[in-house]
Amino acid sequence: MKHGSTTPVIRVLDQATVNKIAAGEVVERPASVVKELVENAIDAGARSIRIEVLSSRTDITSVRVTDDGAGMSPSDALLAFTPHATSKIVGITDLDTIRTMGFRGEALASIAAVSRVTLFTRPNNDDLAAGTRIVIAGGDVIENVPVGAPGGTSVLVEDLFYNTPARKKFQKTRNTELAHIHDMLEGIFLANPKIAFRLSVNGSELVVTDKSPSSLDTIARIFGTAVVRDLVPVTGSGSLLKITGHISRPSLSRKDHARIFIAINGRYVSSPAITNAIKEGYGTLLPKDRFPVAFLSLETGTGLVDVNVHPTKKLVRISREPEITRAVCDAIRDALSGHDLIPDIRSGPALAPAITTGTSLPEQSRPYIYSSIQPGIVSEPTHTGTTATDRQLRQTELAAGPVPAGSLPPLRVIGEFGGIYILATTETGELLVIDQHAAHERILYELAGRKDGKEKRVQELIAPVILHRTPRESAILADLLPALAEEGFHIEEFGRDTFVVRAIPVVLGKLEDTSLLEDIISDVTSPERGQRVDNRERITRIVACRGAIKAGTVCTQEQCQRVADQLRLTKNPFTCPHGRPTMVRFSKVDLDGMFKRT
Ligand code: ADP
Ligand code: MG
Questions:
Q1: Backbone phi and psi for residue 147, each to the nearest 5 degrees, phi listed first
Q2: Fold observed for domain 15-208
Q3: pTM higher than 0.90 for the full model?
Q4: How far apart are CA 330 and CA 111, in angstroms?
Q5: Which residue CA neighbors atom 21 of ligand 1 most closely?
Q6: Each residue's pLDDT tens digit, 89-121
């Protein structure tokens, strides 16, 4: 800095520069332009909105949004481009009750500062009112004339970022920008089922939605009817909020949360807290690293949501977040416990790989890895095997109690396949294929996790078992002793790197040989992979997995029936504690279809 100079260093920026800077916040990329224009159309009460995008090989060249909403008078049309000109709020207190998408009055001014905008508009409620055409380039009004126009508004944006080369250069490839537009619009379409949308790119129509009272139609339009078949409805209402929407059965899951759509008061938002609450609602129905598909709409008092924390309003601040996330989690849990969660074979071609030959397994069908099992070989149960299985099943017979609501219908076992799968039918004539290990794992898990009658769950070992561990494992095990004790393992340190086991959970049955115990302790002390659950939960799952009848154990028909009967008594019969399915279903109609009997 030059001292002593009389030229002022600080100056007030001219309005054009201010607008360009502001534009950087609101219109980052072509998708933000589309978002602002579509939100304006929604705010104008449009029943149908058309979005037309044109592109060259490298760039998005123009965006036009046309609505049949309220339209604007000639004077309003010009005012709309003035920074901080808005019809939606008068003062700051209005923000507490805001129901419109926009309110900052920045979008049109910002867009016009960095592009060439052509606006056609005419008030919709007045046949005699004049239409207006305004052309603005780089913030300067080039044309403002009365014209005939249909009621509503159409905004055409061309030459985007022509005068902000840095921002223009920042644009990714045409396809990336198109993908952003598409993704952003999906959220808006889903949050506004009562509006008919059409999106076209270079003249071809990509998405068309109809006016509909329910978002299910929109979901089907965007994601296909197969997804809809795998959804169950969610409803919840409390003093703070009302929740509606649809979520996937556990059989439909994804490796990311890109298909979790949340709308709050009609605004599509991203909320990590609510996303987590949804995931939490699934509990053990989904593996820790999988996410459901969900379309949720939350209606709350407007005072609870602060939308003015981010220029594009995608992130919102929610007050009383703990209560709201709890309500969401409860609603999800209720929705899942009240419904039939058996994966529907028609919606999951992956669940019938042998039938849809040639297709690769989609990601949601992550098969179990079985060791050395040859399903083709017909095996007979062996005597020692049968008595061992009987013992295991006797332990889980404890599960007897009332059949929980929303559970499995009575099942009749008709056979067994490959030492892995139990074949059963329901009264309604469906064929179920049950994974015996996964099913028994679920039964054991629920038993082991029961918080009641703790003392009954522990059995003293007649001969205590001595375990030797490496120093590293010993350190981990020593830390886990209290959690293990809570789960029924009474283990004491017994000198250096040695432990004595005096009691184990009843559900593990009579300890025939100590390898089961060795396995469990190895699992417990091995580093956690992926799953972030507390120690007790982890131990419960390990006990369930290790204690369950193994895949590959050939069971008698009577034993298969016991597994099926016990499974009926569980609260979540449809998945194992790791979230994999315990069964798939074929209805007679499905089978008829496969045999082309229809
Ligand atoms: P905001 O939406 O935050 O109010 P905008 O710059 O997006 O600010 O729009 C300014 C004003 O222009 C709006 O408040 C509204 O009155 C008017 N307007 C913009 N787009 C439309 C439209 N499609 N139909 C009717 N009025 C519109
Ligand atoms: Mg706006």
A1: -145, 165
A2: Heat Shock Protein 90 (3.30.565)
A3: no
A4: 42
A5: 40
A6: 777 676 666 677 777 778 899 899 889 999 999
